[in-house]
Amino acid sequence: ILLLIRNPKDVATSFYHFTNVLSTLPSYDTWDDFFTAFMTNRMPWGSYFEYLSSWNKYADDENVMTITYEELKENRVLGVKNIAAFFGISLTEKELELVVERSSFQSMKKNSQKTHGAFGNILFRKGDVRDWKNLFSEDQNEKMDKAFEEHIAGTKLGRKLKYEVYCKV
User: Fold this and answer.
1) Which intervals hold domain Sulfotransferase (predicted)?
2) What CATH number does residue 123 fall under?
């Protein structure tokens, strides 16, 4: 199982934009309204912190590889090599280059109409790391950091996210 996790702040930012363009999900008049709902577990898909906590019990299983979105953005070549090794797939240099090129956010967005139909424009917005800085107030940033510390910071997945988000990227 490949478990891809992402900085909760960017998850919230991405979900905010996603919910406001997908008519089957509740939309929010303001970022503040969305943030309140996100932080008080009033999202249709539940709490991201609870999601991470539920996966944490499998983090040490030998059949689970956890990778962060931030890791992949920082070094997609290394990420693809590690994923291929985890699944026991050997790639030639040419195959590796092809996977790396086709797995870039820009390439997936460009091909999203072919791969995901009309839904592609909704799924592939920006693909940035730290886009949360465009929405979060200082108070919201502190609240999210506090929730992160309370819910998952001490877990294996929490430590991985914290390292990738705060130390490397």
Assistant:
1) 1-155
2) 3.40.50.300
User: Which residues pair with residue 5 across a beta bridge?
Assistant: 68
Which ranges of the chain would DSSP assign to H, the alpha helix?
8-19, 31-39, 48-56, 69-74, 76-86, 93-102, 105-110, 112-116, 120-123, 138-151, 156-162
**Nearest-angstrom CA–CA distance, 24 and 19:** 8
**C-alpha–C-alpha distance, residues 77 and 86, integer Å:** 14
CA atoms within 13 A on the CB side of 111: 9
What span, in angstroms and rounded, lies between the C-alpha atoms of 113 and 119?
A: 8
Domain that holds residue 63: 2-168
CA separation for the pair 153, 156 (Å, rounded): 8
pLDDT at 168: 47
- What domain count does the chain have? 1
pLDDT at 163: 61
Local mean pLDDT, 10-residue blocks, the chain (169 residues) = 94 88 80 94 88 93 94 93 97 96 82 77 73 92 92 89 60
What pLDDT does 169 receive?
43
Paired tokens of 17: 């934009």
